[in-house]
Amino acid sequence: MYILMVELRASPERLDELEPVLRALAETARTEPGIVCYAVQRREDSPDVFLLCEWYRDEAAWEMHMALAPVREALGRFDALLAAPPAVTRCAPVALACRPA
Fold first, then answer.
1. Is residue 10 part of a domain?
2. Which of 82, 92, 70 is nearest to 1 (CA)?
3. In a domain, 99, yes or no
4. Contact 68/28 with Cβ under 8 angstroms?
5. Strand, coil or helix: what is 80?
6. CATH of residue 38
7. CB 61 within 8 A of CB 32
8. Which of 7, 25, 30, 90 has the most crowded Cβ, counting Cβ within 10 A?
9. Structural element, H or E, at residue 31
């Protein structure tokens, strides 16, 4: 399993533009066979911060995700949309309990 937690802080003047970009990334992820889970959350106590939880089958699946045109396009927009570079943390699974919504 290849797991990433990503924190994105939107530029205040571009806040309304970032969420649709992240929703589109999640929609792209929905069709990728190597993705176990791709979740986008927004902090309630700091609405300019988005948290992405990305679970890939393996590192190769992550590499395939990163090579997709919609992902590359979104990453290309991050410089203009974010107040700071993404904070990416690699994680190891400990326990998981999920149900489809």
1. yes
2. 92
3. no
4. yes
5. helix
6. 3.30.70.100
7. yes
8. 25
9. none
51 within a domain of the structure (yes/no): yes
CB 39 within 8 A of CB 29: no
Name the residue range of residue 56's domain: 2-91
Residue 55 phi, psi dihedral angles, 5° rounding: -115, 120
Residue identified by tokens 């948290």 is 51
* Cα 51 from Cα 63, distance rounded (Å): 20
Residue 49 near residue 23, CB atoms below 8 Å: no
- Helices and strands in the chain, H and E counts: 3, 4
Q: pLDDT by residue (tens digit) across 24-70?
A: 999 999 999 999 999 999 999 999 999 999 999 999 999 999 999 99
Structurally, the chain folds into a number of domains equal to 1
